[in-house]
Structures are given as structure tokens and as C-alpha cells.
Amino acid sequence: MTPLAPQYTRNAAAGAFDRRLLHRARGASVYIGVCAALGLAQTACVIAGAWLTASLVAGAFAGGQDLAALTPRLIGLAAVLAARALLASVQEAAANRAAAGVKSGLRRQALERLMRLPSGTRHTGETAQLLVRGIDALDAYFARYLPQLVLAALVPAGVLAVMFLAHPPAALVVALTLPLIPLFGVLIGRYTKARAERQWASTSALAHHFADLVAGLPTLKAFGRAGRQAGAIQVTTGEYRRRSMALLRVAFCSALVLELAASLSVAVVAVTVGVQLVEGGLAGQAGLQTALLVLILAPEAYLPLRGVGTHYHASAEGLAAAERVFAILAEPVEPGGDAAPHAGPAALPAAPHLPPPLRRAPTIMFRRTVFGYPGRDPLPEISLTVPAAQTTVLTARSGAGKSTLLAALLGFRRPVTGSIAFDGTDLSGLDPAAVRRSISWLPQRPVLIDGTVADNVRLAVPEDAPDAAVAKAIAAAHAPDARRRVAANGAGLSAGEAARVGLARALLRADLLDTPVLLLDEPTAHLDADTERAVLESLAPYREQRTVLIASHREAVRAIADREVAW
Ligand SMILES: Nc1ncnc2c1ncn2[C@@H]1O[C@H](COP(=O)(O)OP(=O)(O)OP(=O)(O)O)[C@@H](O)[C@H]1O
């Protein structure tokens, strides 16, 4: 049993039939149709099984029938039981197919939307937890809860109809007490709402904490603080355990309450029928058969509704994750963000239909531009003209906002006040995808992925870059051999090597997309003087006919500048 989730109450009240989930999920409506058909067949099996059992027992004990007379019904009962087992396995197979399709569809949609949202607004650990474990938890919803919901709609109706024909007073008792089960379910759901919200928050906090911890473990070890984290983890996991147990208690209690309500109702039916049997109201083989039929069918009417409550608890986590995925899908994409931001070093290849780049090397102007970060004082105001087709080096002091300024040109940061213009046109009036298409960018800390150096360099362009172009870019950047393995986050490369792989990426982009703007953030930060000189020499042809903006304090870099700017 998994912990509950915030929207338990809302969905419980609404029958937890999430239309958005079914709408988003390709093939889900077919699956619901399959569930309904299987549910009808299962209802028929329940009724037929009950009738055959009652008839067999009444025939054998009250009618004195021998084995030969009973054999056809015995075979019928065996066939019904076999059909129930077959239906259950078909249901399972259909559920697994549907769940797999829905999960991959949701993941794809969420990833596509995440690619179009402004970068840096989500915590990686939390998002990964949502897209992997959270969406996986939808299995319980599709494989168990939805079929149970269909059964809960069909079986009680079928059973009640048969009971009304066989024994109206018993049917009346069942009809009056059946609504108690969903009613109790909704009441319990309301009670658990706040607890479920806290539970989800603590699950997210745990994922958050672990992701940060794993990323920072080498540093923590170096400073002898790794051991201390055990205490912090103990606190976080303790909190998680406490909240999970509180919710599980509620889940067990709710199962108990539903069980009790159903048992009491069945007991009332049993007493009603039993009294009639004793008093002779239900006499002979037919009477016994009716009594048995009613007694066998009564619990079957409650069973699917109780199952809905139980399976809902199991599927609540998946629904909570789906709710968060819908929140991501509803987030507005950044203006013009229809294409993925492929200038980013970790960006996935975008669609091949790229907007046209700026026509030629532009003049870039910052007019009284101020950047800010939440909770921080605004950065100093900048007014700056970056001349077209020249190399400008930004030498402002550390923390003055050089990287922020470069990120702003890609649309990753927006100025609080003031403006940025390309050839006199305000950046806000340009298509961000077209602007990014015009820029080759080396960020200060290039993000490297698991693969070879060549794989990492190839990320620079949406299409598959030819080997020769990759080799040329690697050579120009003096990056390590194309076949060298790189682990996630650049593990296996020195900081200088990682920076040169990032530079090779920017150069490949400049070669293949002929980008008129080149932005380099500390391109030679970790290099020795000889390698730095070699890299800067290789850069010379790339600087021609391009507007080049470099953030660096290095003497050798300043030496190649047409202009130097500080603030
Ligand atoms: N994501 C962020 N959230 C909050 N503050 C930030 C963030 N990124 C940068 N800053 C702050 O904004 C200021 C400018 O940062 P930025 O990286 O642009 O400076 P920089 O001039 O490139 O520095 P350096 O030369 O050290 O690379 C710094 O004070 C930094 O702490």
C-alpha cells in the first residue's frame, strides 16, 4: 500500500475518474471500453456462479438429486470459475498495456513541455522523482483502480436486479446500505486531505535532499562533513516514515470501517433470510435455493465498492504525480519557446525546422539594463554597445553580472529594467528561437552528458553532425580525443578539458549553423599559457564576421579584443 496524495479527497468526491488523464492518454478510451466489456462478463459470471452453487447445494440436500443429475451444473460451475480466471488474466494484460502507453505518453509530454519552459526553475531531483517513480505509480490506478471502478458500477447493479427478482426484502436491505460504502469513503478522504498533502511534501523534500547530497558527496567527504549528513538524513527519513505511517493508519482504518459496514449489511440480509427459512417462508428445494442465492450474492454486491476504496489508496500516489505533471503541462511556455532551447549545452536535439537566424553579425545594445535575482540586491546598471563583427571582452569584477548578461542574450534571464537590442530591435520583439539559432554559446560550466567527447560535442546542433565537422571543432578547441569516455557531469575530464569540450561544441555550432554571434564565458579559465595561446589562435577564423562577446579576466584574451568593457 502506498501513501495517499493531496487530491485524494477531490478525486474521491468526483469518483476519482480523472478525465484529463484519460483524455491525455492515447488508447485509454479503448481500455475503458475493454474494462466495461470485461466487467459485464464478470458480472454475468458472478451471477451465474451464485445461481449454480445455490442450485447445486439445494438440489443435493433438499432435492435429493444424485451425481448424474448434478453433473451438468457442476461442469457449468467449473466453466464459470475458469471463465472468471480467464477474464482476470485478460484484464491484467490489457491493464499493463494501457498503463505502459499512458505512462510513456505522459513522460513524453512532460519532457517536451519542460524543454520549452524557462530554464532553472525546477529542482532536478524533484522532477526526476516525479517523472520516474511518480508516473510509475500510475500502474495501480490503471491496473487495479479503474477496472475496479467499472466493476463497482456494474456488479452491484446486476446483483441487485437478480436479488430483487429472487427476494425483494433482502434486495431492499442491500439497496439501502450500499451507498454507505462510497459515503464513508468520501468522508475518510476528506479527513486524509491535509495529511496527504504533508506526505507528498515530505516525499518531495526527501528526493530533493538525496539529489543534493549525492551531487555534493565528494565535497562533503573532503570537508569531513559526510558523516554529519547521516543525522540530517535520519531526520528527513524519520519525518517521511512518521507521515507515511500516519497515512497508512488512516488507510487501514478506512478499510476496517468499510469492511464493518459491508459485514453488518450482509448480516442483516442473512438474518432476514434465515428467519424466513426457520419460519417456513422459504420452504423446500426452491426456498433453500433462493435463500442460498441471496446469501451468496449479497457480499458480492459490496465487494467491488470496498475494492474501489482499497485500490484508491494504492493509486493515490500515481494520481498525485499525474496532477503535478498536468501542472507542468499547463505552465505557459516562454514566448516563442515552441522550439526547444537548443543553444543550452544540455539541450536535446530540436526539431529540424529551425527559424532563420539573424542575417548578419548584429550590433548588440544594452540600455540602462538591470538584472536581478529573487532575494538579492539588483546587479549594477549596464549601458553597453557591443559593436557588430568585433570582439568585445567583458572584464568587470567577479560577480558583476557577466555570465548573467550572456545568458540574457539567449533569453535565459530577463532584465528587471532597461532593454537589450539586436541591431536596434528590442530582444522582446524578436523570436527567441531565431535569436538562439543565431548564437554559439560557451557557458561557464558546460553541462556534459554520459558518452564520448564526440557525443557531447554533437549536442551543439539539432541534426547529426558529420564526423569531419566534429573532428575540426575538437581540433580547434584543443579538446580531448573524440572517443574519450565522459561520465555524467563531465566526470573523467579535468576542468580545463571539460571547458574545451564545451568550446568545441560552440565552434561546431558556429561552423554548421553559421551563427553570427559568438558568446564565450571564460573560454580559457583552466588552461596553461601555451594551450591558452593555441586555443586563442584557433579562435581567430571564428571571430571574423561575427559579433563576439567574451567574459574573461585573462591577459591573453584581453590581448585579442577589439574592445574591453568593465562596469
Ligand atoms: N541563480 C542565481 N540565483 C541568485 N543569484 C545569482 C544566480 N546566478 C547568479 N547570481 C548572482 O548574480 C551575480 C552575478 O553573477 P554572474 O555569474 O553573472 O557574475 P559574473 O560576473 O559572471 O561572475 P564571475 O566573473 O565570478 O563568473 C552574483 O552576485 C551571483 O551571486
Main features:
567 residues, alpha/beta, ABC transporter transmembrane region fold, Rossmann fold, 2 domains, five-stranded parallel beta sheet, four-stranded antiparallel beta sheet, 17 helices, 11 strands, disordered N terminus, binds adenosine-5'-triphosphate, ABC_transporter-like_CS, transmembrane helix, membrane
Descriptive account of the structure:
The protein has 567 residues and is of the alpha/beta class. It folds into two domains: 8-330, ABC transporter type 1, transmembrane domain (ABC transporter transmembrane region fold), CATH 1.20.1560; 364-565, Rossmann fold, CATH 3.40.50. The protein is built from 17 helices and eleven strands. A hairpin with a 2-residue loop joins strand 4 and strand 5 (425-426). The radius of gyration is 34 Å and the shape is elongated. The model is unreliable at 1-15 and 336-352 (pLDDT under 50). Adenosine-5'-triphosphate binds at residues 373, 376, 379, 396, 398-404, 444, 551. Residues 373, 376, 379, 396, 398-404, 444, 551 line the site of adenosine-5'-triphosphate (ATP). GO terms for molecular function: ABC-type transporter activity; ATP binding; ATP hydrolysis activity.
What topology does this entry show?
Layout: H1 8-13, H2 19-24, H3 28-61, H4 67-116, H5 124-136, H6 138-166, H7 168-177, H8 180-222, H9 226-279, H10 284-330, E1 364-370, E2 382-386, E3 391-394, H11 402-409, E4 417-422, E5 425-426, H12 432-437, E6 439-442, E7 451-452, H13 453-458, H14 467-477, E8 485-486, H15 495-513, E9 517-521, H16 529-543, E10 547-551, H17 555-559, E11 563-565
Parallel strand pairs: 3-10, 3-11, 6-9, 9-10
Antiparallel strand pairs: 1-2, 1-4, 4-5, 7-8
Helix pairs in contact: 3-4, 3-6, 3-10, 4-5, 4-6, 4-10, 5-8, 5-10, 6-7, 6-10, 7-9, 8-9, 8-10, 9-10, 14-15
The structure holds adenosine-5'-triphosphate.
Membrane topology: Multi-pass membrane protein
GO molecular function, one term: ATP hydrolysis activity
Subcellular location: Cell membrane
